[in-house]
Amino acid sequence: MDKAGHRPSGLTLLELVLASALLVAAAIPIVNASGRAVNIAQDIERRTQATFLAQGEMENAMALAAENFGLDLSKNSANLGNGYLATVQQTTVGLKKTVTVKVGYDKAGDGVLSSSEVLVSFVTIIADKGN
To answer: Pairing between strand 75-81 and 118-127?
Structure first.
């Protein structure tokens, strides 16, 4: 305090330390939320890309089956590029073929599409047009 009993203007060291601590404490949740937002955006991008790739694989399988119904359409962890893999499974009963296409991102980098890596799964039934 000065001679007139007034406190001098300005901040003490303790006030600066407390203000800095509060600022850091407030910034931590913001930084964490930003990191989560980046992860969510990356997941959405991968699911969208997997959907397009799965659609292409299904269309290809349907075209092949229309041309030659007896053809084996199965694929196991086929590399679609950029870390995406596809598995195509089929079950034929009489004149109907059930085709399942699964596409995912190879997070493990092992070239095998595990069930935890599957992002999209399409199923369709194809009938033999009979010649």
So the answer is: unpaired
Token couple for 124? 């369709």
How high does pLDDT run on average in the chain?
Answer: 91
Q: Is position 56 within any domain?
A: yes
What predicted TM-score, i.e. pTM, was given to this entire model?
A: 0.76
Print the domain residue range for 57. Answer: 13-127
Give a yes or no: residue 122 inside a domain. yes
The string over 26-55, giving b where at least 16 C-beta atoms fall within 10 Å of a residue's C-beta and e elsewhere, is eeeeeeeeeeeeeeeeeeeebeebbeebbe
3-class secondary structure, 54: helix
DSSP for 87-127 reads EEEEEEETTEEEEEEEEEE-TT-SS---GGGEEEEEEEEEE
18, pLDDT greater than 80: yes
Q: Tell me whether residue 8 is in a domain.
A: no
Pair of tokens at residue 86: 């596809």
Which residue type occupies 95? L
**Is 114 or 29 the better-scoring residue by pLDDT?**
114
